[in-house]
Amino acid sequence: KAGVTQTPRYLIKTRGQQVTLSCSPISGHRSVSWYQQTPGQGLQFLFEYFSETQRNKGNFPGRFSGRQFSNSRSEMNVSTLELGDSALYLCASRSELGADTQYFGPGTRLTVL
Amino acid sequence: DAKTTQPPSMDCAEGRAANLPCNHSTISGNEYVYWYRQIHSQGPQYIIHGLKNNETNEMASLIITEDRKSSTLILPHATLRDTAVYYCIPERDNYGQNFVFGPGTRLSVLP
């Protein structure tokens, strides 16, 4: 089975812009979670989607949003980018909402200038 | 919440066993302990998980103490490619669903 894929792998934006990141889960997986990783805060949970509905949300401002499509692919959007949004954004999928094991993608490295 | 402590860094000689400890003294009775590793700037890679019994797979062994307050990940024959940050994850978020990552242990396998 192919693993979790994320596009793009690298992205450079400027403050105030918005960005959309994409994630394709492992085939058959219905849950997609997003995490942000920064040197200062480490790996932090953003939100999780299952059956096109946001199920859980971490402690992030409303500028961070996401959605999931009927084929389980997911996108996350960050509006009005700030310098502090520079991070590695990781997507993880699992088969069902209650299944514990999550499989991570390679991440998208976002740099905000 | 299960408060997790891991040593910030460890060294291991190539070919030797790497034993990575993790303390999770307040883990609840039904939470699995998961181990992931992250090689520089890549996504975390699943290694192994367990509840109360010792577990082994092709990558590693997991030893969980009987009181479940600590565990040890064992890489039996460490190679240079095992150099990574290793995360022990007994904690879940407030929804009980998603992982709470700590800072992990940076393992350096030395030639």
Keywords:
heterodimer; A: 113 residues; mainly beta; 4-stranded antiparallel beta sheet; 11 strands; globular; B: 111 residues; 5-stranded antiparallel beta sheet; 5-stranded mixed beta sheet
Tell me which protein chains meet in the greatest interface and how many residues each side has: A-B, 25 and 20 residues
Model regions low in confidence, pLDDT < 50 over at least 5 residues of chain B: none
**What characteristic shape of chain A results from the CA principal axes?**
globular
Cα-to-Cα separation, first versus last residue of chain B: 39 Å
Tell me the span between the first and last alpha carbons of chain A.
37 Å
Shape, per Cα inertia axes of chain B: globular
- Helix count, DSSP H or I runs of 4 or more residues of chain A: 0
Q: What is the tally of helical segments of chain B? A: 0
Tell me the Rg of chain A in angstroms: 13 Å
Helix content of chain B: under 10%
Order of SSEs of chain B: EEEEEEEEEE
Which spans of chain A have pLDDT < 50 for at least 5 consecutive residues? none
What does this structure look like?
- The complex is a heterodimer of chains A (113) and B (111).
- Chain A has 113 residues and is an all-beta fold.
- In chain A, 0% of the residues lie in helices and 53% in strands.
- Chain B has 111 residues and is an all-beta fold.
- In chain B, a hairpin with a 4-residue loop joins strand 6 (55-56) and strand 7 (61-64).
- The chains are: A mainly beta (113), B mainly beta (111).
- Chains A and B meet through strand 5, strand 9 and strand 10 of A and strand 5 of B.
